[in-house]
User: Fold this.
Amino acid sequence: MLTTFEKLLASRFLVPGAGGRLALLIAAIGCAGIMIGVASLVLVVSFMNGAEVRLAGQIASADGHLFVSGPRLRIARPAEVQRTLESIRGVQVATATLDASGLITAGGRSFAANLQGVQPSQMSVSPLFNGSAHSIAGAAPTNSGTMALGSDLADRLGIAPGDHAAITMVRFDRDGLAVDNHDLAVSGVVSTQVQSFDSRRVIMPIADLRAILRTDSVASKINVRLSDPEHQDAVVAAIKERLGPGYTVATWQSMNATLFTALAQERLAMTLIISLVTLIALSNVLSSMVMLVRYKVREIAILRTMGMSRYSTAKVFIVVGVTIGLVGELAGLALGFGLKAAKDPITAGISAMMDHPPIELDVLLSLPLVISPTEIAWIVALVAIGVVTSTIYPALRAAAVDPASVLRHT
Assistant:
């Protein structure tokens, strides 16, 4: 704790006289640098978290949160497994699908496609077709001989609802290599803004896909949607316990591990780069404190001759440096959260001022900015530790002032 005298002396050093204006200017620059650094950290972490949340929501809404598969990617009794999964607390809906790869052709154009068969009765509960998370032109492929395509795939093929396309499968029989073409009508086009889905996915009734594949397999996996993804680990443990051995449970994070690893690396790199800005600002605080000690060396010597201890001297200068740093930190938090709150009005205003706003502005408008209390505490603690550390050397230098030597030469 500071004594009344130490508080008075610290406040005097925070507003130095004419001889200390340069030190005050450098301290102000350091304070502004910390403010900019902290605000940048808040915004970068918020943007990176928002991108991950948005991507997670898109991927999960397309394919679910968990994926249960059986031995050899076959589930013999999918209806029974679905009922078991839906009885587990935290599971919102379970949907059995049959998945395969094939070729889709229309108008002389051919592209690889991920074929997915779904029971028509299950399509009504899927966010792909119930309008809760995606946009769709046309209707769900509930009738035999129909299919729905991802929007990018439909654009490349040049087809729309009502058109026809062929699903091509290559197989081996007794006569050697054979090619089967199956004509299907396009009932709908689905847009999820997930490239891996929109550019390759083809959805059709599961009975049609079984006929195309010439297989008796009822389902290859079951997509599980959770009511609260935050409790995903507990649901995974419950599924493994209820289904027993022989079933594999994968999460949407593990299914997209490469993508989320890249996001994590990008967030780490951006955080480190922005942290360098704060580090430079902390060096300004250090230099301003060293200059302040130099300007105030005669006053320090006089105070030491009057009985002020080395400890008290060091404590005063630590308080001065910490005050400068914490003011910058609080200002940075205020600026960062202010810009975070003003993201939508600022983006909308810029978009309104431009005749042809770039698509990045629309993406920015729909991007949520998310930062957790833990991350805020991490930023505050990191900067506070840096501020305290940057004041130690100047404080020790002030405490080491020799009154006799200083006063003898002044």
Q: What stands out?
A: The beta strands are 66-69, 91-106, 109-118, 135-138, 146-150, 164-173, 176-191, 201-205, 221-226, 248-251. The chain has a mean pLDDT of 84. The chain is about 55% helix and 20% strand.
